[in-house]
Write a structure and sequence with these properties.
By secondary structure, the protein is α/β, with parallel strands linked by helices. About 35% of the residues lie in helices and about 15% in strands. A seven-stranded parallel beta sheet has the order 3-4-5-6-7-8-9. Strands 1-2 form a two-stranded antiparallel sheet. The radius of gyration is 18 Å and the shape is globular.
């Protein structure tokens, strides 16, 4: 599988697994954990979660999925903005570690920007690294001006996780080049969109038919084609997990890209950062 390198030299697969909406119903948790384990079997060893997802329920699903397989997994979680202060971040981190049943999180992200100064959050993250409770830190839903505000600390920021798919291409104008220029990978959440509207696109269906694949696989291949990007689609159905894994082998041609660009034009100017 294509690999992506973090600034500290650590490599992870370009295709990982998301967990948004997992853990919301207890009756689904066993199947959701099984889907994540299948993804691990298929090489998608990066798992992304957050304390926000089902108010910790998704982290509990991840704990079940990685039980006995911790060494295989690159584990990512995120802290609420209102928990990102010097006082509250250690408490939120401890709660996540407990739900995940691990001693250390590989990558801990600020979920989005809130009222806590970024410098205070970074200092709390660095203390957590010194304590051995996280291996590295990063951010999510921050735009270029926010990243620039990090100043010298930007060199220690492992990633920026943002919304990026064919329907939300604004990050291509400046954020993706900004991160690439600093050797910092971007994590793309919701790479196949939300609600299914993207997958009903005639253009997407036409490209999919040309390759004998699904529209979702085309949407995922579009994101995976970009260097330095980690895609984290969520899938709780075994069939969808296998389709996601197969998308890493799909190579879109220049003609395919032209069709997609015509239907979903790339940005020609700065756009406000899209978020879900």
């Amino acid at each position: 599988m294509k690999q992506v390198k973090f600034p500290d030299g650590t490599t992870v697969p370009a295709l990982g697994q998301g967990t948004w909406y997992m853990g919301e119903r207890g009756s689904d948790r066993r199947a959701e954990a099984a889907a994540l384990r299948l993804g691990l079997d298929l090489g998608m060893r990066l798992i992304d979660t957050a304390e926000m997802y089902a108010e910790g329920g998704a982290e509990q699903v991840v704990a079940e999925a990685i039980a006995g397989r911790r060494e295989e997994v690159f584990l990512v979680s995120k802290v609420y903005p209102h928990n990102a202060s010097a006082r509250k971040l250690p408490l939120a981190l401890e709660a996540s570690l407990k739900r995940l049943r691990v001693e250390r999180i590989d990558l801990y992200l600020l979920h989005w920007r809130g009222g806590v100064p970024l410098a205070e959050t970074v200092a709390a993250m660095e203390r957590a690294i010194a304590q051995g409770k996280i291996a590295r830190w990063g951010v999510s839903n921050l735009d270029v001006d926010d990243l620039e505000e990090l100043g010298a600390a930007l060199a220690d920021c492992a990633t920026d996780q943002v919304l990026w798919n064919l329907e939300a291409r604004g990050v291509e104008f400046d954020l993706l080049p900004f991160c690439a220029g600093r050797g910092m990978p971007v994590m793309a959440y919701s790479p196949i969109g939300q609600g299914g509207a993207l997958l009903r696109s005639p253009a997407l269906k036409a490209v999919a038919a040309r390759h004998g694949v699904t529209a979702a696989q085309v949407a995922l291949a579009f994101v995976l084609a970009r260097p330095g990007v980690i895609a984290i689609p969520k899938a709780a159905d075994p069939g969808h997990v296998r389709q996601n894994a197969a998308a890493r082998d799909l190579v879109l041609t220049a003609d395919d890209m032209a069709v997609l660009d015509a239907a979903f034009p790339p940005p020609r100017r700065k756009r406000a950062l899209a978020m879900l």
